[in-house]
Amino acid sequence: MLQKIKHIGKEKNLSSLMANVSVAFLGLLSFMLLTRQLPKELFGEWVLFITLATFVDLLRFGLTRTSSVRLLSGADGNQKKTILGSSFRINLILLIALALLCWLLYGLVILAGLQINNGYILFLIYYPFLALSNLSWNNAMSLFQAEQNFKRMMWVRLSNVGLFCLFLVLNHWWLAWGLEAIIWVNIAVNAFSGIWCSLKNWDGLTYLVNAKRKIEKELVNFGKYSMGTLISSSLLKSSDTFIIGMSPILGSAGIAMYAIPLKLTDLLGIPLHSFTMTAYPRMAKKAVEDDVLGAKKIFYSYVGIVTLLFFPVALVGFVFAEQMVLFLGGKEYLDALPLLTLVFRVFTVYIMLLPIDRFTGVLLDSINKPKLNLYKVLVMTFSNIILNVLAVFVFESLVAVAVGTVLFTIMGMIMGFYYLKKEIQVESRQIFSESLVFLKNLKTHLG
Question: What torsion, rounded to 10 degrees, do the Cα atoms 64, 94, 119, 261 define?
Fold first, then answer.
């Protein structure tokens, strides 16, 4: 029995899930503390700032993350140094370019006297500092994922999320610092994690001398598609927040309200992120070995099982939507409870569709067709932006924004299956049969 428990503890899917759950729990706690210590308008500005920061981080690290994981998965010691050093140099150049762009735009906004949401102003001022502080630990994530070292990944993420959460507890009860001070503390805790990764040689800083133009070119050539896919994927969620922030009617208060059901949706989707992190290296390995049938079997199994797991999660979310929204947002959002409950119930439909859409993209990347995955996500992104503009400026409805999310996800599923059927003859009816095999041979699939 003890040996079985040890084996379960080492199982990679479970390790990845535990890492994401631990970070998400502290993220949830931080979210709840912020809703209770910042007025609705200021909380909306924080959400806009952090959403923009997350989006641009995807732009920076999307260029190298997927391609680095792909190369690091089969690399020896010296090759790893070269890959890490090359990816670090690329990300350092991107950091400098983005910092200059942010401060230039801030100067233009001030000179022109433009009146924009303060969340955008906060981003232009403070993002370069945040980008510098999270550079090292974000670059180290490629190494952790390639090595399937999810325990180390968890501790590095917990080091900044945990410290930030601890600060928010102190701030709630004693300090009562404002929004800008909270942003500076967030920068400081990210810097702590970054310094730790640098001292341990996990990030590639000390391997800058090993960087090679050839590897950088290879990383960028593959990464330009995965970066486009990641950016577009992020826009699928974050464009809601950006467009609501531009509305003179909904504004920061609208962002604050919409953030609550959106956060609940992200929490329910945590297992999916964990499974995709473990599925990608496995499918990619099969594809590299020209075992297309093996890659398809893994795809069928993951899609079937994860969709099955998400069904009760979505059902619980739908039934207890009101209680979950009130628990997360607190009494300040009591007046908007019926609206936010309806928005979240629409999102539970999106949760059910998400695994199929996400895994079609993962398989396209695995078989070295990132361009097709990019096309799929771009169509979804543009559709979402159009639907968001209509929902916010024509219907002035947060529910309409959520309905748009369901519609573009259905579109993504259809496109994903179309491309996979065309490239490697994927058949949707095989999902059920392979899922049964998956359940009978858990050790083989999850070991």
Answer: 0
Whether 396 and 313 have beta carbons less than 8 Å apart is answered as no
Q: How far is CA 83 from the centre of its chain?
A: 23
Domain around 91: 1-222
Is the distance from CB of 445 to CB of 283 less than 8 angstroms? no
CA distance 392 to 403: 12
Residue 342 lies in a domain: yes
The verdict on 204 and 97 lying in the same domain is: yes
Widest distance between CA atoms in the chain: 69
Specify whether the CB–CB gap between 117 and 250 falls below 8 A. Answer: no
**Helix-strand-coil percent breakdown of the chain, rounded to 5?**
90, 0, 10
Which residue is it, tokens 């952090």? 50
Residue 222: per-residue pLDDT:
75
Q: What is the mean pLDDT of each run of 10 residues along the chain (447 residues)?
A: 44 63 82 87 89 86 78 75 87 92 93 84 94 91 80 86 93 90 95 92 84 83 71 73 77 81 78 75 79 82 82 89 86 84 90 86 82 84 87 85 87 88 77 65 51
